[in-house]
Structure formats: C-alpha cells, structure tokens
Amino acid sequence: MANRLHPIHNRLQAATILFLVSSFAFFAIAQKAAAQGSGGNKPPIENKMPQDTIDSSAQETTLGPPTVPVDQIIKQFAAKEAEFRTERDNFTYTQTFLIQTLDDSNRVDGEYRTTSDIVFDERGKRVEKVTYAPTPTLERIMLSKEDLSDLENLYPFVLTSDDIGKYDVKYVDHVQLDELTTYVFDVAPKTLEKNQRYFQGRIWVDDKDFQIVKTFGKPVYAKSKSTDNQAFPRFETFRENIEGKYWFPTYTRANEMLRFKGGDDVHIRLTVRYENYKRFGVTVRIGTPVKPAEPNPEKK
Fold first, then answer.
1. Cα(88)–Cα(153) distance, integer angstroms
2. Cβ atoms of 170 and 295 closer than 8 Å
3. pTM for the whole thing?
4. Tens digit of pLDDT for each residue in 234-269?
5. Domain ranges of the chain
6. CB of 141 closer than 8 Å to CB of 270
7. Residue 19: CB partners within 8 Å, gap ≥ 6?
8. What does the alpha-carbon distance between residue 23 and residue 127 come to, in Å, rounded to a whole number?
9. Whole-angstrom distance, CA of residue 178 vs CA of residue 124
10. Which of 42, 186, 196, 274 is 20 to 30 A removed from 119 (C-alpha atoms)?
C-alpha cells in the first residue's frame, strides 16, 4: 500500500507546480486513484458532517414576515449581486488557502497551504502571484481539476440576474443573524447540465442592502467518468461589508468526512481567507449625459 502511494504523490507534486504558475488556479479534492483490480464497487454514499462541524443555523432568531413581496426581494438581490460581481473585479486582495487531512484522533496528517496576491499587471489584467507555498504533505487525497471552478465560483457564490433563472429559489424565513437581519432562501439548480457545476444549499440575504451575506451548501453536478471517484465537501462562506456598500467574501470553511467509492473515508478541514481588499479601478457606469454648466461672464 505504501509503495503504491509514492508514484501518486509524485504526480501530486507535478500538479502542484502547474497550479502555482497558473492564473486564478484553485484546488479540487478527489481521492487518490485506487489500484486496478481492487474490489468494493459500492454506490456513492451521501456525505455526513462530523460532529465537530459547523452549524449553519446557529445564533438565528426568527423575525416577522417580510414587508416586501418575495419575488421583489429575489429580483432586488439578484440585481445587487450583479453589481457586486462587477465591483469585486476592481479590487485586489490576498487569498490564503489551506486544506488538511485529519486522522482518527483529529490530528493533522497532511496539509496543503498557499497564499496568493490577486493583483493586476501593467496591462490591467487580473493575475495571481503566489507569495507562500510550502511543500505539501497530503498523502490520502489529491488535487484535481473538477473542484477548480468550485473554489473560484462556488465558494464565493454569487447569484446574479443572469444566473438566477437556472435556480429554484424558495423563501424560508426572516431571521436575525448576529447583528444583521436577513432573508433566508433555499437554492437548488433546476437542471444539471454536462460539464457545469452548481451550488445547492441556503443563502442569507441582508434585508437592507439586498446582498448575500452568508452561504451554506455543496457543489452539485452531472455525474461523469472524471468525477466517478471524487467527493466534495459542504462549505460555509461569510461576507463582510467593504467600503460601506458591497458585501465581499472574507472567509470560507469546510469540515467534512469525505466518502469515496471503493476507498477509505477521509476527514478534511478546509479554509479560504480573502483579506486586504483594496480598490484598483473604478467601475464605469453608463447614464444620462449631463451638459456642463455655462461659464458665468460676470465672474472673474
């Protein structure tokens, strides 16, 4: 068993090098390929959260019914989310990604860590510059391409006017969430298209700014050969108000027992931190042109 892990680990190191030089490269989680001829072709098992995992409903107090029609709330927050997506593209920030595997005693037995600055080059193109990447020690899982889009698009999940037609959005409650008052919705894709990844779970929408402030859910997708022996954790993402206007993601976490087809269960712990948001550019907005005021000849 140990000997068979070594060549796979070498492939992981090679994949890591490719990751570090790619722009906006993120990570995916998949079990290391099982040896040919191994048995145990069991159907996939639904992931279950460990006992020490996050509680998505903690510190919530139910409020009264919304004062705004639900369809109007959905329309407003989808429009605000479209603005948010555009605005975030004008910011630089620092991103720290950490994934660890835990043994039966909840001790770390493997780790991958990297810190990157998301900045703009001299041509104004968005690029990622890795500033810290110690040698990975992961042995029981490997990083694969399927979750790349999850870490880029689903962890900082955005549900805009362009995307909302792909989802069923169901109103759940109006709750106090820490210091915020929020509308809660359950979200699920209407259909699963080939080679597309979607979010399924719950979102909390600030009832004043009409923007998502928290998400809790999992990736869903159409099954394929490439994902046959992969597993993906449920995650929770928190946002904070930036510049008093937009709610940007600042922290994502997952703590999950991943169950793989024909393989061992692997307990993983994952965090992504987004810090040091700084505006780089200004969003250009198209509006009604205003004629400049005529100069006053009496003023010198």
1. 13
2. no
3. 0.76
4. 999 999 999 888 999 999 999 999 998 877 899 999
5. 2-32+58-279
6. no
7. 25, 27, 143
8. 6
9. 38
10. 196
